[in-house]
Amino acid sequence: xxxxxxVAALPVAENFVIQKNxxxxxxxxxxxxxxxxxxxGTHGDxxxxxxxxxxxxxxxxxxxxxxxxxxxxxxxxxxxxxxxxTRGFPMFDLDMNRIFPGSSSGSLAEVAAHDxxxxxxxxxxxxxxxxxxxxxxxxxQVRVSEQNEGALLPFAMxxxxxxxxxxxxxxVLESTLAHTLNMRGxxxxxxxMGVGMRITESYCSQLLDGILNILRELGIWSGAxxxxxxxxxxxxxxxxxxxxxxGGIFIxxxxxxxxxxxxDSVGIVIDPFTGAIVEETLAPCSGLLFTxxxxxxxxxxxxxxxxxEDVKNG
Amino acid sequence: xxKDIIYSIKSPYRQSMDIVGYTFGAGERSCCVVGALRxxxxxxxxxxAQLVDTLKRLEENGCVIPGKSIMIIPCANTYSMNIGKRFWxxxxxxxxxxxxxxxxxxxxxRIADGLFKSIRDYVYGIQMASFYREGEFLPHIKVMDTDxxxxxxxxxxxxxxxxxxxxxxxxxxxTTTLNYNWQVWGCRAYSxxxxxxxxxxxxSMQTAVNAALRFLIAKGILKWTLHRGMHTRxxxxxxxxxxxxxxAGMLKKHVSVGDEVAEGDLLCEIIHPLEGNTIGRIMSxxxxxxxxxxxxxxxxxxxxxxxxVPFSNV
Lengths: 314, 314
Hints:
The complex is a heterodimer of chains A (314) and B (314). By secondary structure, chain A is an alpha/beta fold. Helix content of chain A is 21%, strand content 32%. Chain A is built from six helices and 17 strands. In chain A, α1 crosses α6 (201-217). Chain B has 314 residues and is an alpha/beta fold. Chain B has two domains: 2-236, 3-Layer(aba) Sandwich (Aminopeptidase); 240-313, CATH 2.40.50.100. Chain B contains six helices and 18 strands. In chain B, the strands form three sheets. Chain B has a nine-stranded mixed sheet with strand order 1-2-4-3-5-9-7-8-10, sandwiched between helices. In chain B, strands 6, 11, 13, 16 and 18 form a five-stranded antiparallel sheet that branches. In chain B, β3, α1 (42-60) and β4 form a beta-alpha-beta unit. The termini of chain B are far apart. The model of chain B has no long low-confidence stretch (mean pLDDT 94). Classes of the chains: A alpha/beta (314), B alpha/beta (314). Chain A binds chain B through residues 8-13, 16, 87-88, 91-95, 98-99, 105-108, 110-111, 133, 135, 171-175, 241, 243, 246-249, 271-272, 297-303, and chain B through 9-13, 86, 90-92, 94, 97, 104-111, 132-134, 171-173, 175-176, 242, 244, 247-250, 273-274, 298-304.
């Protein structure tokens, strides 16, 4: 059932509405009810989650008799952004994923953030799906802050992703949806995969398998699960960052998601006037090329690639 | 006056973006003034340009105290300024959410790093700031309420001779701003808000220029005669009353920034955007001075349309 989560009036003959699709089996045992939320579309240019949500809704609705809990699907928590190909919340300067938990007395964006948290509060788990941005392509991965590693890593391992990146905490990230929910006791996994403004069907299917695995683990779903690949976990590994020092056009020389060795060419930056190679980017370590630049134009500083280093023997 | 390029980046097709700093005097790094970090902070750039012009003459007349130096950086984002875009040209990131910066990071992280390394050691820092909300302010000076040297910083608020000095409790998203990081580094940092952002107000520009000069005089960096300005009312940002739009539509304002209002006075009407009738009236909740006024014609529900400083709190 489609339900409103946050509603506010826009200036001219329209309401701002965030909606969710609540899928539940009303015939199921009440006591067994758990609730999982799947959220996406915080950034309006990140669309991979659209297909995941759509397919998940179809599978669960068609197999409702196999459901014994509640799954709330929020495909667009920034509906104005998605509708206008805008990463941020239109007419609001701050990144929507930097204003949680929001405020009931704040601006429209802050009230919306508050309403989203209020709606998800009390859930057993939340999966927050992002898809990088238009510049970078990411392999399916879960990002977990160090402080939540203990609670989240076991679930991250079930999500059928290629990588679990455990990162340091930062004050600025305290205002994300995931941090806010984790602090309130809702175990929240942040998924990054694919690239902005596109849908990568294989990645969506991969994540969908993982979500069904988690639903099965929580006892919400008795239908088929999916594949569970064993992800690389960033613990005890270094992440190699490759940024451009020159401006120009980036041409990749290594395949996204492939294994590269130290010194391999990851890509070149060329001068578009002369064709001269102004920079060749070499892998600083051996490992998984999990991030690769998608958007060709680069400035000094533009991120070109990231490599998850192999575990060193001995 | 010494003119230096303090940071420079290249793009594939544009001339390099040089961040220029103008230094007056020599010796101790006494005060740094930073103007536009965003491409629409035209008033902020203009204030700094006026300061450069004024200090040039004052330095020629021996007004800069020996052993002291002042640096003015009118604009750290000429690329965005030249295409009329508030945030970074390519990825829409905000330089003022990237401090202290990272020299191996993304472009705006590198810009923040390059800028910050050049200005972090000053005793005093003044940022000509703009706010994320669209609107007009009474000129005021603001400091982050952190533990870093707060007493001296607070006591100096009145040295600017502006009508209001605000203390702001930082939110997580404030921790990556220039002002916050200046304070972390031990610099006494202030944000000076002029009335406008994307257009130049002659009177408010002069008010800001005089405020900065007055501060330099008070701190023994500049020897010159200038009237003392206004008595500064110092208050916590939270004590300012926000007045929100309970309805959406066209805004018809009845008061302006700086007006004094009584509780119950009509502040604005909300007009139906298609039918022209009044659908809402907003009254002042308190006796006070209009400190901020939203300056767009259309308002969403929850929009912060006025801020009022209550008389009783000052």
